[in-house]
Structures are given as structure tokens and as C-alpha cells.
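Async update (no meeting this week)

Hi team, since we skipped the sync, here's where things stand on the single-chain job. The sequence we agreed to prioritize is pasted below, unchanged from the tracker. I ran it this morning and attached the output directly underneath so nobody has to dig for it. Comments welcome in thread, and please keep replies under the output.
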Amino acid sequence: MKDYNLVDIILPLAIADVYTYRIPLANPSPLTSAALGTADIGKRVLVPLGKKSIIGIIYRPHEGTLPKHVKVRDVVQIIDQTPIVTAQQLHLWEWLSQYYMCTMGEVLAAALPSEIIDDNYAAAICQYISLPPTLLDHHAQEALLSSFGRAKKQEQLFRTFLDLAQGQWQVERRVLLESSGVSGAILRLLIDKGIFLEEEHPISRLRRYSGAIGSPHPLDTQQQNAANAIRQAWQDKNVVLLHGVTSSGKTEVYIHLIEEALQKGKQVLYLVPEIALTTQLTERLQAVFGSQLVVYHSRFSNAERVEIYNEVRGERGDEKSKVILGARSAIFLPFRDLGLIIVDEEHEPSYKQQDPAPRYHARSTAIMMAGWYGAKVLLGTATPSVESYHNATSGKYGLVEMKERFQGLQLPRITIVDLQRQYHRKEMYGHFSDPLVLRMREELSKGKQVILFQNRRGYAPFLQCSDCGSVPKCPNCDVSLTLHKAHHALVCHSCGHSIVAPQRCPSCQGEYRTHGFGTERLEEEISALFPHAHVARMDLDSTRRKDSHQRIIDSFSAHKVDILIGTQMVTKGLHFDDVSLVAVLQADMLLNKPDFRSCEHAFHMLEQVSGRAGRKGDKGEVIIQTFDPKNPVFDYLKKHDYLSLYEQQIAERQLFHFPPFYRLIIFTLKHRDEQRLNAAVTLLRERLEQTFGPRVSGIITPSVARVHNMHILQLRLTIEATANIHRAKSLVREHMAYVVQQSAAKGTIITPDIDPL
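Output:
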């Protein structure tokens, strides 16, 4: 009989496989004593790796036998009494690893808060002051108060305690000292005398809602019909697409469906693509679901994320954390009984993780994980992705549509401004056309608010010497440095490299001129044009601090801000009653991307930003400035005609072999040495062509061909949607493994991106 068990452990590293360790059954060491529990799947363990120790997750019992020459090392410590990773989570990790061609270790590193992996989480502690049993009686308290005599500070502190305690006989130490105005030395004296007891208790870092809770608003006819149709569609389909125009009242439908799931004892995951969207939505959901709602996203500290993780898996045994509102990373939480997943703004590219691995799409992942929980999925949007609408119209998903705005509000009118004509006539105020400035003045004079959208942050995309024409570039990347005037800095938006903005060209001492514009420059120009208006900016630079989104949105909602300038953060999901005018300053940035999805993405963005106008009362207006006013996208926008856009796009996709009829894999190869990189990409292309033939593209040089001093080249593999994708990926892995083992390509990093956006 063997005296040990072999288990496979997932380590949070980009290693190609799991590691096998031994857990002794007899004569355990002090570190593996019975008090530490058994080696159950999903528990954390401390294991040796090289000369160090590392924490991993027990994945499964090791099957089969190991070669005799393989030395298996012992697990050092079983950390958890109960598993912290569920069986459903491990199913999800396996699928992510296989589908997105990454390692289980990479998935683990993304899925768990780092303080869980490192086992350095410490609960927040609060100090409390309480009374000993002998002083809980009212008569004993009165006798003590009479005995203080001339010790007025001690008496004052004790009386303050009684006032604050209100019969609970426990007061937070900080509150007691602040309320009494007495020093800590006096408090310490009473503790030493045995009059007070000092205790420490763990407290939650999470801010819980404690306000009034009401019922959901009644649904109007369109909303009720949509909710009924969704329930009916769920009888046959696990996934339903809700296509509702902007401001049609989709969120209220969500709320009613969430309430029904909670009544069945289920948990609900509500995904949004942007952290900014959680701000207004949190208040709306808390008004109905109270403290059952928890928000989860990357702006929380690691310790806060650990607490949410533990609450969602029910560690405390309470009924909190029933509705989880979060960005894409919320799919990794350990749900106990998930019944409904809502993917709001399902078309959004933000749902796709770019770096690091796993490069997953949260919408696709949510649909897969719902199957393991027996949950239903609702995809909601005003502008469905081509893939989702194709799945809905072909019968794979259910389809429900809401074609009218709530309470009969009209969709905003779209005005296209020809910038070429405006510049030719000299009818521009900086980067603002004459028609836009005129309309802004009219709306602001009525007490209305304006949103300005420019999807580029900073002051100017680059500087250029007026004499020699040189442009300051990043030393690590093939990109120009962006001017951030407020910080007097030039910043690389690829790697973060930053330098002090020079006054003159270091080569010829010529003067620099700015080219292009970002949100920071718009803020400066608009403040000069409208000196009496209150202006705010919402972009990555202005929202780096925690809760900064909340402060900006609250100020705009409270009408403390008249004009809000922002990047895509301001384009979707936000509701402001008094916004009557929305402007897109440079639509050509969206239209002219070298991507087969550029037309679709431009329509999505412009239609979503237009939805911020006229959400209450008068019909809103959207002014779009462009050098290409005849672009067909604007014809679809003017009519808010998604269906015509879809029909045009789906025909092109089929003709040119793009999704949803074909699957794409983009291979990104990186190396510091261009020669080795060229050798690697040539070899990989040859190997792929042997298997896949003309489905392999030529070598692609990306628009940014060097980042962090790593040269970059790409290949694209196109595979029919009906093909065996698992077999194809298996062959791809073999070719990648072969290439990186060749001496000519040594050190090359090959990263596959499945279903790229």
C-alpha cells in the first residue's frame, strides 16, 4: 500500500502544463498535519518550485504512473480548510485554456485576486470599546459616575460612551474619542482600571447600501411585451438577444428579470463593458436590491476583491452578494447558484481582453459558463454585434426587439457637418465648426447640457519641428509621443514612457507645433469659447483615482457641469435628463481604421453616443463633424437603421471570408532581434501553409511595429466556421512549438489571439 497521493497542481505561471506533487498519507510533517485538512480539489497548497515555494491550486488526482526517473516533490502545506475554487470554475478555466490557447496557469493568475494567490490577505480590523459584565447594570453605571469626583475628563468619556452605546455597550474607539474630545491617554487609563474593555473585530472593506429599498417600476406595454417574449424564448434557448433602441427601457426589463431570479434563490451576474457604467447603474439597482448588490471591477483594491470573492462563494454563510454588477473580470467569481447572466452593451469591444492572457471575450465566456450553472443569458444592446444578430436571426439565439423609445420619446436627429467645407470658408473656432458652436450657445442658454465626444486623450497626438520636421518618438516603441499639456509631458500611450515636453527641437532648436487634438485640448478651447460654462473632462487621465468616475458623473447629473468632454466612457449607458446636444468632434478617427469591423464599430459608437441626447423631454440632436460626409455609415445613422447596416455587413463578411462565417486566429510574434523575428515568422507561415494552405495570410506588419523594444510581426489564419476548430488548434500548437525550438528563431514569443476584435 502506497503511503502518498499524487495530485496535479495549477501554478499561476505561463507554463505549458500542470505540475505533479506528492501528498504523504502516513507520518505527516507538522506542515501537513491533519489539522490542515485533506487535499481536496480547489484548495490552495504551498509547493516547492526550484529553490522557492509557490502557491497553487489542486486541480485533480494524478492519473497513471510517472516515469521512474522523475522525482516527485512533496506538498509543503495545504492552506485551506475548504476549497476556494469550485468545480464550475475549474470547468471554466479548462475551457478558457483550450479555446483561447493559453495555459491553465495564465488563467489562474487572471481569475484569482493576487492576495488569494499570495496568501497575504489580512482582514480589516476595527478597535471597539465595550463594558465588562460588572458595568452592564444601570445602577453600577450610576455608582461609577458618582465616584469620578474631580476626574471630569474620565467622567466625560464614560458619559459619552453611554450616549453612543444606546444599550449596545460597544462603541468604535475612533468614534468615542472624536465625540468626547478626550485624549487617548484618558481612555487608556480607564482600560487599565478595568472600566473599559478594548476589543478588535474584523470589518468589511465593502461599502454596503443602507438606504430605502423600493419595488421595481411598473413596465410599460413595450417593456412588458419584451419581458414576456424573453421568458418565452428561454423555454427553447439558453441565450436571448434583446435588441432595443437607445432609451427604450431595457434596464427596467433587466431589473424585473433579476427580481424573478432572486425569488428563485439564484445569483445574477450583470456585466457591463466600462467601469464608468457601474456608477449610475449601481444607484439604480441598489434602490431595488439594496445590500444584495455588490460591484466588482479592476479599480477595487486586491483586499476588496478578496472580500467580494469570499462573499460571492458564501464563505460567511449570509445572503449578501446575490446580484454582482461588474466588468468582464467578474466572470471569474465563484458563484454558488448562478441563474441569470446579463451582458449589457453586448457589442462592445471592451469585453475582449487584449493583454495579458487569457485573451478571452467575456460575452462568449459568459455563454459557455452559463451551461455549467444551468443559467440563462440575456444579451442587451441598441446596436448588436454582427455575430450576435446573425446567431439570433439564424435561430441559435432567441431574438426580442424594442423599437420605440420609452414613453414615446423621439430618437435624436443627426446633423452631419462637412469639415472640409467649414475650413475652406474659415468657419471654424479652433476644432469647433460654426454650426456646432451656434447650437451649443442655443442649448446652454436654455439651461441644457452638452456632451462632446473625442476618442483620443491628451492635448495633441504629436509635436513636429517647424524647421526640420522631426517628431519626438518613444525610444522603446514605434510611436510618436502624445503631448499632455497639464503635466508638461510627452507620453507614450503604448508603454507609458514619459519625458518633460521640450520647448524646442533638440536637433535644430526650431519651434515645435502641435498636430491633431485630444480631450485635454478640447477642454482648453471650449473653456475659452464658453468662459461662463462649467466644463469637465472624463477620460483615462482624469479618472485614474478611485471613485473619480462617480464624482464626475455626479457633478454632471447635479448640473454642476454644463459641458462634459470625454472619450468612449461618455458614449454609452449613461442617463442625463438635460443633455439635449451631443457632438462628435472627429468621426473620421472611427471610420478610417484598417479593419474589416471599422464600419460596424463606427456605427456602434456613433449610434450609442447619439443615444445620450434627448433622453427626456425635447428631441435631442447629434452633430457629427467629418471630412467624409458621404460615407454610407452616416446614411444608416440618420435613419437609425441598424438592419440595413447589418445586411450590408453580413454580405461583405460572407464574400470576404470573415466572421461569423469564418473563424480568425491572429498570431503575434515578438523578438528584440529583427533577424530572428523574420526567421520565425517565415518558418511559422511555411508550417501553417503546409496544413492550412491559402487560409494563411501573408506576413502583416502592424501599425505599431515595435513596443517595449520588441519588434512585432503578425500572421492571420482563417478557418471555416464548420471546420473542426479543436483539431485545427491542435495542429497550430504543434507548429508553434516547432518554431520556438529552432535555433534561428530562438527567443521568439508567439501569441495566438482567438476571435480577435
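Quick observations from my side:
The chain has 23 helices and 32 strands.
The CA atoms of residues 53 and 351 lie 35 Å apart.
Reply here if anything looks off.
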